[in-house]
Design brief:
The chain is an alpha/beta fold and 231 residues long. It has nine helices and six strands. This is Noncanonical pyrimidine nucleotidase, YjjG family.
Length: 231
């Protein structure tokens, strides 16, 4: 198993899909807003089509190829089109607004989140680096009762660029007041979190619950509590 440096003092976590159970919370949110807007569909089928489309739009957003508003509208429009369901633009726009407004009504975190944060907190300073929209990320942290574990929160939106851009990681290191040699990044997205960190010399561990094939030199875990093997 690849080892980590013993100089680690600070740990940087991604939020969505790493600590905060985005897929579960998102599905529950869609259930609310579809009922509110009288959109009748099979939620399971919708989620199946929506998830890869949403990931595609987030990659476009990271690459500065779509705006926030285009992401919010486009991922819904493309999903409805794929399902051959006619939904008026007016309703799609309202759904995109309601989705953000209701998203933090549910705040499930992954199994092991509280236990691993309790384990790490006495030994390290903990931080968040997120590509999520700044207006909802702090609310997610607070409503899921994990905000108090973290010394700093870096929102890529506030920095002006998104992970994997080096500026995001360098900003996070700066406000944490440490050098890259003393930090490590933990996240689920290979491109944004892992390569983004490694490219500036920041160590990284992939929370690989997606079960993607990684190069053997990449540190990975399948459950958050497996971090105890490294840290």
């Amino acid at each position: 198993m690849p080892q980590i440096k013993n100089k680690i003092t600070d740990i940087f976590f991604d939020l969505d899909h790493t600590l905060w159970d985005f897929d579960k919370n998102s599905a529950l949110t869609f259930d609310i807003i579809f009922k509110k807007n009288n959109v009748d569909l099979d939620l399971e089928r919708f989620s199946e089509i929506y998830k890869p489309i949403n990931l595609k739009y987030w990659k476009l957003y990271r690459d500065e190829k779509v705006s926030k508003s285009k992401l919010r509208y486009g991922r819904l429009k493309e999903t409805f089109d794929a399902l051959k369901i006619k939904v008026e633009d007016r309703v799609i726009n309202q759904l995109s607004i309601d989705y953000i407004n209701y998203l933090t009504e549910y705040n499930y975190v992954f199994e092991g989140t509280i236990e691993i944060l309790e384990y790490l907190k006495p030994k390290y300073k903990l931080h968040i680096i997120t590509n999520g929209f700044k207006e909802v990320q702090q609310t997610k942290l607070e409503k899921s009762n994990i905000a108090h574990y973290f010394s700093t929160v870096t929102s890529s939106e506030a920095v002006g660029v998104k992970k994997p851009n080096p500026k995001v990681f360098n900003h996070a290191l700066k406000i944490a007041n440490i050098t890259k040699e003393n930090g490590i990044m933990i996240g689920d997205n290979y491109e944004a979190d892992i390569l983004g960190a490694l490219n500036i010399g920041l160590d990284a561990i992939c929370y690989n619950y997606h079960n993607v094939i990684l190069e053997k030199e990449i540190k990975e875990i399948k459950h958050l509590l497996d971090l105890k093997k490294y840290l």
